[in-house]
Amino acid sequence: MNAEPEVTQRAAQPYAGISAWVPMAAVGSLADRIPEIFGRLGARGIAPAGPPFFRYHVIDMSRELLVEAGVPVVSAVDDDGDVRGGILPGGRFAVMTHTGAPDTLVAATTALLEWAEAHGLAWDVTHVDEGEKWGCRIESYLTDPAEQPDMTKWQTQLAFRLAD
Asked: In angstroms, rounded to a whole number, what is the distance separating the alpha carbons of residues 39 and 48?
């Protein structure tokens, strides 16, 4: 089940994250590193300012993707080993909240892409040799699996930046 997509304005957001080039089948391995991000922030007395997310920087489904697992924070953080600070860009985003297991996110993403096309919206994306380079394409994981073991009830927010 998906909430109706909408266009919304998002402010820039500092975050801490770990990035890697991985094939699509290995994207989940970055999720295993999210506790490392939380641990590094906790050791510095920094609380997360929102749910963890994946940010897709470069996408080529037949090769590797540049993906980042991250956690929003209130203010910029210094790099700490593999955990790097950054800023998610602000701007206009097409946003949709999806309820369902993680393996249904591809269909949800396709639905959001089709909705945007039907509404004449253009993405902040450029084509590079490595694939599609996105200005900002994020999946925020709104449900804590420890609190909701039923994956069919998990909520994920998709937020893809639109072209200016």
From this structure: 11
Number of domains in the chain: 1
What is the pTM (predicted TM-score) of this model? Answer: 0.92
% pLDDT > 70, the chain: 99
Closest CA to 91 of 68, 45, 61, 125: 125
**Tell me, what's the pLDDT at 133?**
95
Give me the half-sphere count of Cα atoms (radius 13 Å) on the Cβ side of residue 26.
11
Q: What are the C-alpha distances in Å from 109 to residues 102, 104, 123, 148?
A: 11, 9, 13, 22
Does residue 1 lie in a domain region? no
